[in-house]
Design brief:
With 328 residues, the chain is an alpha/beta fold. It has a domain of 225 residues: P-loop containing nucleotide triphosphate hydrolases (Rossmann fold), CATH 3.40.50. It is built from 11 helices and 12 strands. The two termini are 34 Å apart. The chain binds adenosine-5'-diphosphate (ADP), iron/sulfur cluster and magnesium ion. The site of adenosine-5'-diphosphate has 13 residues, from strand 2 and helix 1.
Length: 328
């Protein structure tokens, strides 16, 4: 089977006044159709930049591709022409983000924005765009399937009249208009209240199952990933450090950083075990640590760790990038 997404040795930097930040350093990630994968790691580790790389939203200054390749359904994303790229962004990949307000236009009603997107998709797929009454009907149906109350009335409302959770549902509805194969959700519930968070996550889980979507869910919250994803990918400072079945990795993490992340989560059932934050700071990517980028914060680091970059290896039923993975 062709992987839906195949990222090979992907290296990306941002050039700025202070120099070149080496933001992604040799990312390898293969995602098969129907997989649900969660990408987790501290703020600034490159999760969003990786997601945006997949839709080729980073290959302009200050972004600079230093090497590697990204294939979507067998096609080289970096070699795509304008039409292929529009197809990729319209029908291949859908993205939803943390702050829905940024992606809704405040001066147009929800209905007007959805009608535009629906008709644009009709055109992109070579059909005559449906008339606005038919597009409004489709928009209302979509909002209904997002469990929004009174979907027809919702069409005439403006983004600022909706709650954060409602706006996120509208954006999810819009993301699904092009019947994408891969849904990338980048911290989709981080800005929402906890109860609304749970509802939106449940909705995403249902839509993924109903439309047989492949899901790439980005979060700094291990609980969110555990609830929705079968596979988890742990990132640290622009590298992938552990990748495997979520149950396997969470039950028995093999990378010292994954262990640190898990230990930093408060355990409500054992309040006497205080959550332990990972000591030290995330590194400055203008001059990232040599060898293993985690070495300045790793309690197990040996001399080799400061010298050689660890590669991903299969250890205990998952992949780990640590020189001591067998012993740790
Ligand atoms: N457009 C940009 N220009 C310069 N640096 C950027 C840009 N976007 C992201 N970065 C840098 O890339 C790194 C990774 O960012 P990001 O992917 O947003 O992290 P995460 O999503 O994991 O919190 C950060 O150091 C960030 O400052
Ligand atoms: S390679 Fe070395 S520094 Fe990096 S996580 Fe493993 S033991 Fe720690
Ligand atoms: Mg981010």
């Amino acid at each position: 089977m062709t992987p839906l997404l195949d990222i090979r040795d992907w290296r990306l930097a941002f050039d700025g006044f202070e120099g070149r930040a080496q933001v992604l350093d040799g990312i390898n990630l293969t995602v098969m159709p129907g997989e649900t994968i969660g990408i987790v790691g501290e703020t600034g580790c490159g999760k969003s930049v990786l997601a945006r790389s997949v839709a080729r939203l980073v290959d302009m200054p200050p972004g600079r591709i230093l090497g590697g390749s990204i294939h979507f359904d067998g096609q080289d994303v970096m070699a795509m022409n304008g039409a292929a790229l529009a197809r990729l962004r319209g029908h291949g990949i859908a993205m939803i983000f943390q702050d829905p307000m940024t992606y809704l236009n405040p001066v147009f009603s929800i209905g007007a924005q959805m009608v535009d997107v629906i008709r644009a998709h009709d055109r992109a797929s070579g059909q005559r765009p449906r008339n606005s009454a038919a597009a409004r009907k489709k928009a209302a149906d979509l909002l209904g399937s997002m469990r929004l109350p009174e979907p027809a009335g919702m069409l005439d409302r403006y983004p600022h009249e909706l709650s954060g959770g409602m706006r996120q549902r509208v954006l999810i509805a819009m993301a699904l208009i092009g019947t994408p194969r891969l849904l990338i959700a980048d911290e989709p519930t981080t800005a929402l209240d906890v109860t609304i968070q749970a509802q939106v996550l449940r909705l995403i889980a249902e839509l993924v199952a109903m439309h047989a979507l492949t899901l790439m869910l980005i979060s700094h919250d291990l609980g969110v990933i555990g609830a929705l994803c079968r596979r988890v990918v742990v990132m640290y400072a622009g590298t992938i450090v552990e990748d495997g079945e979520a149950t396997t990795v969470f039950a028995n993490p093999r990378h010292p950083y994954t262990r640190g992340l898990l230990a930093a989560v408060p355990d409500l059932e054992k309040p006497q075990h205080r959550a332990q934050p990972i000591p030290g700071q995330i590194p400055n990517l203008l001059s990232p640590p040599s060898g293993c980028r985690f070495h300045p914060r790793c309690a197990l680091a040996v001399e080799q760790c400061t010298r050689d970059k660890p590669v991903m290896r299969d250890v205990a039923g998952r992949s780990v990038a640590c020189h001591l993975a067998e012993h740790a």
